[in-house]
């Protein structure tokens, strides 16, 4: 009798039906697919100057006139830039030029600025990127702060910290904390950008132009309000300010 | 004869590989999930090629919709609770325990504090309608000495609320926790610059000068 029972147990079917489990999995996956987003939004950092009533107009604008560009963002996604060589010329409407967004338009104007082309800085950044990306993964993390500091140096005009897609360690170490006193080689002139969005321009335009600052490696830019001189320039070209 | 043979065929399909795949997929989705917040006022943010991500916690979201209405939100319930207490005191309004609970379940604040009791008594459909047509007042309150606006009061209250919560933490728990709320400005593509300017100017007035602009990633055109 006992023997018979054992043989019966062996014959028992131990196959489990997985169909309900798969059904449940499907439901869960559908839930997760619908209720989550894979892409996290990006954050663009923006620092505005704190409000200081004591700051005079002269202090605000210390950059040389010929190394400055003023960008106006206007209604209907229109974009204008203004370059003058002499301070006295600022305010004359005929120097205003219209341009388009993107690579062919504003980026070209910034890249080939007459006195402070950012082309040089962008090239230096590409070289720095090449150096960083060629590093083995384990070293990239350790060199993260070096990369960021070198990038700031480039933005300030020390383009010679990189050469031949390599970081020049000797030069990198020579630059002091403030990145000001550095006489071994010449610094290239850097461009200062005044961004002046008109009230009727859209937020999209503002973000796009700030993004352009990142792409073009420009460290000196400010979002400013339009003043009487700007109004004279814009009015002279028939651009609606409000 | 043939018919009988077909009937005898076993049509059992082995589901094990299928459930294996399912478990893998499920794990993937669970690990990479960011839950979509159920925000009433949604905005389409502009695109940029910035790589940095929005911090996942300790944020103060300021939403500006295309009409220039301002809404605030924060991901920390404790902060919200403390900010609410302060705002109720500032604006001399009171809520009962139930209303407070309902308020904390909200994802965005978009009505003047004085209207809160009435707003919280509405049905959900009505609330959505109200949220889409009001917003936090950004004009300065004339009766106040410092001429702050309700929006500025909210930002201050939330910042202080978070700070209080952070200072109460044990030193061991402080590791890895941000020591202050990060201001994230989330505006629509179509939002006019004048509205953004006004919000930024109000933030500058209360000495907040660092923000994160929320954008979507876009590849750089070569």
Give the topology, please.
The complex is a heterodimer of chains A (242) and B (222).
Chain A: H1 2-10, H2 19-35, E1 36-37, E2 42-47, H3 57-60, E3 68-73, E4 79-82, E5 96-99, H4 106-111, H5 119-134, H6 137-142, H7 144-156, E6 162-163, E7 166-167, H8 169-174, E8 192-197, H9 203-215, E9 220-223, H10 228-236
Helix pairs in contact in A: 5-7
Chain B: H1 2-8, H2 16-31, E1 34-35, E2 47-48, E3 59-64, E4 70-74, H3 77-90, H4 97-104, H5 116-120, H6 124-133, H7 150-168, E5 182-187, H8 193-205, E6 210-217
Parallel strand pairs in B: 2-6, 3-5, 5-6
Antiparallel strand pairs in B: 3-4
Helix pairs in contact in B: 3-7
Word description of this protein:
The complex is a heterodimer of chains A (242) and B (222). Among the domains of chain A are: 64-117 and 190-236, Nucleotidyltransferase, domain 5, CATH 3.30.420; 119-174, no CATH class. Chain A is built from 10 helices and 9 strands. Chain A has helices spanning 2-10, 19-35, 57-60, 106-111, 119-134, 137-142, 144-156, 169-174, 203-215, 228-236; strands spanning 36-37, 42-47, 68-73, 79-82, 96-99, 162-163, 166-167, 192-197, 220-223. In chain A, the strands form 2 sheets. A 5-stranded mixed beta sheet of chain A has the order 5-4-3-8-9. In chain A, strands 6-7 form a two-stranded antiparallel ribbon. In chain A, helix 5 (119-134) runs antiparallel to helix 7. Mean pLDDT of chain A is 79; it is low at 1-5. Chain B has 222 residues and is α/β, with parallel strands linked by helices. Chain B folds into 2 domains: 2-31; 47-217, no CATH class. In chain B, strand 5, helix 8 (193-205) and strand 6 (210-217) form a beta-alpha-beta unit.
């Amino acid at each position: 009798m006992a023997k018979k029972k054992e043989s019966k147990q062996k014959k028992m079917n131990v196959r489990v039906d997985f169909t309900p489990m798969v059904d449940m999995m499907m439901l869960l996956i559908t839930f997760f697919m619908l209720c989550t987003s894979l892409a996290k939004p990006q954050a663009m950092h923006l620092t505005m100057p704190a409000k200081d009533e004591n700051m005079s107009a002269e202090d605000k604008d210390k950059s040389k006139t010929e190394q400055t560009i003023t960008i106006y963002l206007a209604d209907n996604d229109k974009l204008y830039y203004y370059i003058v060589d002499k301070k006295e010329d600022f305010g004359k409407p005929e120097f205003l030029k219209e341009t388009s967004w993107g690579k062919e338009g504003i980026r070209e104007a910034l890249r080939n600025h007459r006195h402070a082309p950012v082309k040089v800085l962008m090239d230096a950044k590409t070289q720095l990127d090449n150096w960083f990306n060629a590093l083995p993964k384990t070293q990239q993390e350790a060199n993260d702060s070096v990369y960021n500091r070198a990038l700031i140096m480039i933005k300030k005009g020390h383009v010679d910290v990189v050469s031949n897609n390599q970081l020049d360690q000797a030069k990198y170490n020579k630059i002091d904390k403030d990145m000001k006193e550095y006489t071994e080689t010449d610094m290239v002139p850097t461009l200062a950008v005044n961004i002046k969005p008109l009230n009727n321009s859209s937020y999209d335009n503002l973000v796009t132009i700030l993004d352009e600052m990142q792409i073009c490696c420009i460290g000196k830019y400010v979002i400013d309000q339009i003043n009487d001189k700007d109004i004279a320039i814009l009015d002279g070209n028939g651009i609606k300010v409000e | 004869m043939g018919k009988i043979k077909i009937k005898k065929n076993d049509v059992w399909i082995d589901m094990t590989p299928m459930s294996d795949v399912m478990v893998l997929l499920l794990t993937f989705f669970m690990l990479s999930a960011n839950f979509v917040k159920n925000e009433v006022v949604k905005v389409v943010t502009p695109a940029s090629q910035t790589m940095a991500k929005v911090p996942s916690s300790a944020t103060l979201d300021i939403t500006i919709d295309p009409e220039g209405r301002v809404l605030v939100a924060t991901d920390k319930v404790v902060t919200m609770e403390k900010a609410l207490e302060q705002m109720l005191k500032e604006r001399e309004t009171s809520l009962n325990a139930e209303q407070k609970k309902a308020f904390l379940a909200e994802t965005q604040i978009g009505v003047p504090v004085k209207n809160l009791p009435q707003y919280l008594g509405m049905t959900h459909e009505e609330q959505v309608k109200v949220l889409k047509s009001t917003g936090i007042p950004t004009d300065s309150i004339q009766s106040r000495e410092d001429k702050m606006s309700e929006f500025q009061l909210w930002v201050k209250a939330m910042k202080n609320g978070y700070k209080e919560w952070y200072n109460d933490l044990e030193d061991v728990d402080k590791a890895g926790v941000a020591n202050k709320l990060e201001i994230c400005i989330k505006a629509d593509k179509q939002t006019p610059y004048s509205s953004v300017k006004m919000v930024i100017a109000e933030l500058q007035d209360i000495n907040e000068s660092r923000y994160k602009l929320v954008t979507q990633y876009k590849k750089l055109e070569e």
